[in-house]
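pls ignore typos typing on phone
molybdate ion + seq
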Amino acid sequence: MISVEDAFKRIVETTKPLTTEKIVLEKASGRVLAAPLTARRTQPGADMSAMDGYAVKSSSLTGKPTTLKLIGESAAGSPFPSACGDGEVVRIFTGGIVPEGADQVVVQEDCTAEADSVTTAIGPEAGRHIRLAGIDFAVKQIVLDQGTYISPKSIGLAASAGYDHLMVHRAPKVAILATGDELVPPGKKDFEPFETVNSTAPQISALLSDAGAEVTILGQTGDDLKALKAAVKKAAGADVLITIGGASVGDKDFMQQALASEGMALDFWKVAMRPGKPLIFGTMGQTKVLGLPGNPVSAFVCALLFARPLVDQMMGRPAPLPTGVSLPLAADLAENGPRQHYMRARLVGEPGSRHLDPAVAQDSSLVSVLAQCDGLIVREPNAPVTKAGTMVPFLPF
Ligand SMILES: Nc1nc2c(c(=O)[nH]1)N[C@H]1C(S)=C(S)[C@@H](COP(=O)(O)OP(=O)(O)OC[C@H]3O[C@@H](n4cnc5c(N)ncnc54)[C@H](O)[C@@H]3O)O[C@H]1N2
Ligand code: MOO
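k done
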């Protein structure tokens, strides 16, 4: 049995980001830039007005009512073609290029306009209401570094810098396969008492889709070696195969055998954690295989700790072992056993003085408890009795 830290190293830290692909800008949120992004243009491309008003040579202004000759107009997208001289003004709108010669914009609220002239008492202030060329970014400047996590804020910048596609790391293809004679698909109408819904497949699919993976659920297969081998074959081409169940020592736990006979090289089996002990990890060609334990909470905890960071790592987002935040306990905890314990807990109390209330029932079959909780308290192997009020690590989910 290996430690959680060692398991994380073997699964996540040894994995390299996937190859790159060009993706259309509006679909790039959540991806990671595979090369620096260099501006193809300067923004703004020229000195521009920040207000609607009149462009003027500041030396024409006195601070006392002064009448200036109106000689033309500069609007966003249609610049004034000649220069603004002494005693002259050019009507200008926000985003219009400041004409040659002018170095100040007077807002229209401070002017009285006639057909051919404008009078203002504003004094000289060179640069007032002018956005200088390149104040946002300049051509050839790196505007986004390699490794940047793309989000809507960076999509706007990339578009301004002249891009409609970005070079990013590929999103991993994840296949999910569940096993168990008792499993039926979600949505079945009538249930036999021995049946259980394959609830973990959609749950983990959602977790990893949220992280950006392209997930395919391969459904559920009975505890039958031949059927399992055939199902595993369907994962060919996936970057990650996640199996659920059949990972333990029961007579019908065939998953490891099926994976091995389909070519999986086992890296390890069993981690000193609770829940989640019988986790399998191996590689099958280019496919990383995570064999999650069947108990639904065990599978979910393993997916949070290992599968989601693996997806992050493949997408180019370096993913450290989740360690969480430190919060005080609302109740005493008994001494821990030899495995790292991930205890389901709720956040209680007012914002600013939140405490962690561990669920009374920690059985790894309880999906209702999982859904009512806010995250996991992390307990080191053999941690002593821990009193209410003690700060402990907490992984929100
Ligand atoms: N003698 C021992 N028995 C068990 C050990 C052990 O060390 N010695 N380990 C226990 C631990 S810890 C776990 S966790 C489970 C995991 O076993 P498996 O991976 O073989 O899981 P299954 O037997 O297939 O299923 C366990 C349980 O979970 C339900 N299940 C399975 N798949 C799903 C799914 N996709 N969605 C919802 N629920 C699922 C299944 O019906 C079972 O009730 O082994 C212990 N036993
Ligand atoms: O580890 Mo099992 O995952 O304790 O329920």
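Residues 24-43+146-169 form one domain. The chain has seven helices and 26 strands. more later
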